[in-house]
Amino acid sequence: ETGVTQSPTHLIKTRGQQVTLRCSSQSGHNTVSWYQQALGQGPQFIFQYYREEENGRGNFPPRFSGLQFPNYSSELNVNALELDDSALYLCASSLSLAVQETQYFGPGTRLLVL
Amino acid sequence: AQRVTQPEKLLSVFKGAPVELKCNYSYSGSPELFWYVQYSRQRLQLLLRHISRESIKGFTADLNKGETSFHLKKPFAQEEDSAMYYCALNPAKGAQKLVFGQGTRLTINP
User: What is the pLDDT of residues A31-52, one digit of tens each?
Assistant: First the structure.
């Protein structure tokens, strides 16, 4: 069984650019959630995808968008990057939406915006 | 608004001593609460959830609705317990939208 993988591991961008982060969910998992973790803070929920549809969104502007593909892998896109977007971006997958299902986290993508 | 507060950013105890990591939450409904742990150079992973009432690696956590707390406890700390601990709340039924606290870095001294 393969765990959650994310790519790239590190990324440096400049203000105003766009970025795409990728996540491969654990085998058999149809639900993917994205979180932003700023330095010294806990992860903050961005949005969740269930069977290719967005299923809830946190307090993030529309320039944060996502996709989920038929194989349940997912992308997080951020447009018009700002300095405050510098953070660790975590992806988590689970078997379903049920609360009792465990979310399995990936290693994260560290984004630095200059 | 839902909020999770972990008042201690750092906690240091000696091996064999009891450990208590504090977590307070604000939420108007019936919360689903979790503790996540991140060991050095590892990814974030679930430690335990209140709904299971389980004990993992000797840790337990009791939900106190009156005090809106979900403190994590272990009677005898071990060096391998050194890690970053996050308390989290899921406010949504039919979804998993975790609200995390800031985390507590626990260091167990030999």
Answer: 999 999 999 999 999 999 999 9
DSSP string, chain A: ----EEE-SEEEE-TT--EEEEEEPPTT--EEEEEEE-TTS--EEEEEEETTEEEEE-S--TTEEEEE-TTS-EEEEE-S--GGG-EEEEEEEESSS-TTSPPEE---EEEEE-
Interchain contact, B102 vs A42, CB within 8 Å:
yes
pLDDT tens track for A59-76: 999 999 999 999 999 999
pLDDT reported for residue B7: 96
Cβ–Cβ below 8 Å for A43 and B86: yes
Nearest-Cα distance to chain A for B95, in Å, is: 5
Using the Cβ of A48 and the Cβ atoms of chain B, whether some distance falls under 8 Å is answered with yes
Q: Is A107 in the B-facing interface, judged by CB distances under 8 Å? A: yes
| A86 and B CB contact within 8 Å | no
**Residue A51 falls in which region: left (phi positive, over 0), alpha (psi -120 to 50) or beta:** left
Alpha carbons B30 and B13: distance in angstroms, whole number: 33
